[in-house]
User: Fold this.
Amino acid sequence: MFFKWMKQCDVRNILVSYAFFKTTESLEKLFNELEWYPKNLIIDSGAFSVWSRGLNIDIDKYANFCLNVNDKLSKKTNINIVNLDVLPGKFGQFPIGIERKESAEKGWQNMLYLESKGLKVIPVFHQHEDYEWLNKMIKHTDYIGISPANDVSMKNKLSFLNKSFSITKDKIKTHGFAVTGYEQLIRYPFYSVDSSSWACG
Assistant:
């Protein structure tokens, strides 16, 4: 239903989740039946949705999915692949220092592994992680994700975004995960953003 609306509205850029589609065939079938492809397609692992349920994503299955998407759809749409990022701690609990360090390190290793498979990957910098990781990402690639925590106040989110963008400045493209609030969009120079809240009304 949502994709039909997107076609009718001539939406040019969309994000889809591996955690929802699972197979390249299901995604390709959807677009073929609609006879429509967006100009830009971001493939996200769905790591947050899976992590919030206490589950995990197999990185090899995700890598194969992304490789197949590139192979079958790259001539019809511009594709960007989001890293299989790792969220710190457990859902609903504030992560302690060692959890934040371990998750950031694991996410970095996942990025390098996916790149070794031939994929160009968007790494994700999460609120609560050390800013050294943001600096590493800037030096490593030209497009990164910035993910504010969803369980903190807006003041806290804005403080995180203020510091993040004081580092990124205009050096790099940024994607804001779950960032579609008016104040955030007019204040920060995101290259792209996504949110599912538009579909929840």
User: Anything to note?
Assistant: The two ends are 14 Å apart (CA to CA).
